[in-house]
Design brief:
The structure holds two protein chains of two kinds. Chain A is mainly α. Chain A has 19 helices and no strands. Among the domains of chain A are: 90 residues; 58 residues, Methane Monooxygenase Hydroxylase, Chain G, domain 1. Helix content of chain A is 70%, strand content 0%. In chain B, a hairpin with a 2-residue loop joins strand 3 and strand 4. Classes of the chains: A mainly alpha, B alpha+beta. At the A-B interface, loops of A face helix 2 of B.
Chain lengths: 400, 117
């Protein structure tokens, strides 16, 4: 394992532990960065437990640094460190610390766009330019969001702690949203390559940590299952020779990751036993149906979408449900179900309408809808797919 | 311990609450004050008269001027506030939730550590 991989795997855990020991995120980040710089100079080969080495070194470096400084924060952090000296020496990063830090990063008092940036920076160890690229925003904007969020955490005393059971209904959803958005951005990037595996991997890693730490929260398990079952289909999502998008129905199921599917299905079954359905669990169940057997059981998918729409009556859910309606009741009924669904600027609405119109043989309207969808799509791969579909349609039309 | 300002805002032109609503608001506010005192969180609290009764004082280059009316030329004004002390933002937000239920939107703003005694 090289230092870059160790950095990616251990950075967030070490920052989380140091944040608890020092009571300050900035000091924690500096100390961990110092320790990695030292590692770069000292390691011939990495020690057996690199995380423990980094935490111990970071802690020692922080003590040295704090002794030289006499600011209020430094004195406060020093007092905290002394307080923690009575505890048994850390053997490495403490998992609970990450959970504490993720709840701090996703605190509802922080702006939603700051939550994701801060989570990627502190827990994922992503650099500001990487986050800016992932979210198509200026580096300066990302940097400013992170600085402002860290300042608010310190000034307003947003605590490092896992919320109590009764607070979870308010506090868990923003955490799940951040992980879901992180994965989604990786899976269907707004620009650049369609799939950014680093963001997907990071979201799954954090969702796994969350599920290990909160095994009794069905929505946490549901989110993890959804991410795993989506990730499992990734190898079949792009045509290996042309790099074009392949729809679910046309995907080569042999390319799917069987281990991830088995793990996802197991989680979905655990959720079903709990019988406390939520939006992520239902979406995971839909993914489970898609990945079960040789072909999708569409009536079951539609029943799940009905349940999801009742729980989350949003236009995006209505749009996804329409796809299932088309498979069960035909394109005309699906098109009618899309009447009144409004999603300004989202290419998938006209793309779905185009597909349904094409199936009904209403090619003239279908072409217009494909044009509209291609104009709205921001990702090059998706735009190319839509333009291809439009061209095929013209060709079929001329041939018939 | 951190100190937080919990301010209640009123919007000019918003419908005036009925007498009954005012009574409920006073009663609930009184209860919150009692609970804050019992919990050791209460520092100060008070309701303010309307912004028309405000006077702005300026002291520039040795000359003092006074003018009628509120400082901020906005439609929103502070109608009352609490100053509380508690361990962290979560504790402050829990109090603010009760204050907001009684009086409408509440802004929670931490005091600068340096200004705290």
């Amino acid at each position: 394992m090289d230092l870059a991989n160790i950095y990616r795997a251990e950075y967030g855990r070490c920052v989380a532990t140091l944040a608890r020991l020092l009571g300050d995120i900035n000091l924690a980040e500096e100390a961990v960065q110092d320790a990695f710089t030292t590692a770069l100079q000292k390691w011939q080969t990495p020690p057996p437990n690199p995380g423990a080495w980094i935490v111990t070194t970071a802690r020692n470096r922080a003590v040295d640094r704090l002794r030289r400084e006499s600011t209020r924060e430094a004195r406060h952090a020093q007092a905290l460190l002394l307080h923690h000296q009575d505890e048994p020496q850390e053997v490495g990063p403490v998992r609970d610390d990450q959970l504490r830090l993720i709840f701090t990063c996703c605190h509802p008092a922080l702006a939603p766009e700051a939550r994701t940036a801060l989570t990627l920076r502190l827990l994922g160890g992503l650099e500001v330019p990487e986050i800016a690229r992932a979210y198509l925003v200026q580096e300066a904007t990302v940097a400013q969001r992170i600085v402002r969020a860290k300042k608010k955490i310190r000034d307003a005393a947003i605590p490092y702690r896992v919320p109590a059971e009764h607070e979870l209904p308010d506090r868990l959803p923003p955490v799940l949203t951040v992980l879901y958005l992180m994965f989604n951005e990786g899976y269907a990037s707004t620009a650049g390559p369609l799939i950014r595996t680093d963001l997907c991997a990071e979201a799954i890693r954090l969702a796994r940590e969350l599920a290990a730490l909160m095994p009794d929260e069905p929505e946490v398990l549901g989110l993890l299952a959804l991410l795993l079952l989506t990730e499992a289909r990734r190898p079949a999502r792009l045509d290996p020779t042309t790099g074009e998008l392949v729809l679910l129905a046309d995907q080569d199921r042999a390319l799917w990751n069987r281990a991830l599917i088995a793990e996802g299905h197991d989680l979905v079954r655990r959720c079903l036993r709990r019988n406390r359905p939520g939006a992520y669990q239902i979406q995971a169940a839909i993914s489970a149906v898609h990945t079960d057997g040789a072909a999708t059981d569409w009536p079951q998918v539609l029943a799940l979408y009905d349940q999801l729409l009742a729980l989350v009556p949003t236009p995006v859910v209505a749009l996804n449900r329409a796809v299932a309606v088309a498979e069960v009741h035909g394109p005309a009924v699906a098109l009618a179900a899309l009447e009144g669904v409004d999603l300004p600027g989202y290419h998938r609405l006209p793309a779905t309408r185009a597909e349904l119109l094409a199936r009904l043989g209403r090619n003239y309207e279908a072409r217009a809808a494909y044009d509209q969808a291609a104009a709205l799509a921001t990702n090059e791969t998706e735009r190319a797919y839509l333009q291809n579909r439009r061209t095929e349609l013209t060709r079929e039309w001329r041939a018939s | 311990m951190k100190q937080y300002l919990l301010s209640v805002h009123f919007v000019e032109g918003a419908p005036t609450p009925s007498d009954e609503e005012m009574q409920t608001m006073f009663r609930e506010t009184g209860r919150i004050n009692d609970d804050m005192q019992a919990a050791g969180a209460w520092v100060f609290a008070g309701g303010l008269t309307s912004p028309e009764s405000a006077t702005v004082v300026r002291a520039d280059n040795g000359t003092t001027t006074m003018s009628d009316g509120p400082f901020a030329e906005t439609k929103e004004h502070i109608a009352g506030f609490w100053v509380i002390k508690c361990a962290d933002l979560d504790a402050a937000l829990a109090w603010a939730e009760r204050c907001a239920a009684a009086c409408g939107p509440v802004e929670v703003r931490p005091f600068d550590d340096l200004s705290q005694a």
